[in-house]
Amino acid sequence: MNFREGFAVEALTAPAVDFMAGNGPYSLRRFVERSRDSGEKSHNMVITGMEKKGILEDLESLEKHPKVKAAKEVILDKIDEDPSAKAIVFTEYRDTAYYLTSELKDLGIPAARFVGQADKEDDPGLSLKS
């Protein structure tokens, strides 16, 4: 790989690594899955760069989402203290909300997502319009 190719790979993959640091490997995996299907050239370039740097292989060995693990621990502690306890968890990304609600439901905890933005793909959001 020459300097130009190396620089391009670095420039394209740095945002993906930053994204993963803040949102966990699960969200980055979901981005990669959606991006592969999108056919967009910029997405393909990012994925190719991630493959060249071995990031995609590393994703498989990482915990799915450390913030979700921490949130589950806090919620379970609160439920142990008070079985009728309720919680609201705010998250920036739909993938994180989806993953957290799925994990809570697997533990037998009723959970629902509330998405307050416009529709995205097959995931409806809410609006102020009646």
Describe what you observe in this structure:
This protein is an all-alpha fold. The protein has two domains: 3-61; 65-124, no CATH class. Helix content is 65%, strand content 0%. Helix 1 (3-38) crosses helix 3 (55-61). InterPro entries: P-loop_NTPase.
Question: Mind sketching the topology for me?
Answer:
Blueprint: H1 3-38, H2 41-53, H3 55-61, H4 66-81, H5 94-106
InterPro entries: P-loop_NTPase
Mean pLDDT: 77
Count of individual beta strands: 0
Instruction: Compute the number of structural domains.
Output: 2
Poorly predicted spans: none
State the end-to-end CA separation: 55 Å
For the CA atoms, what is the radius of gyration? 18 Å
What helical percentage do the residues reach? Answer: 55-70%
Overall 3D form: globular
- Name the beta content range: under 5%
What is the multimeric organization of the chains shown? single chain
Number of helices: 5
Largest sheet: none
Structural class: mainly alpha
Order of helices and strands: HHHHH
Summarize the structure.
This protein has 130 residues and is mainly α. It has two domains: 3-61; 65-124, no CATH class.
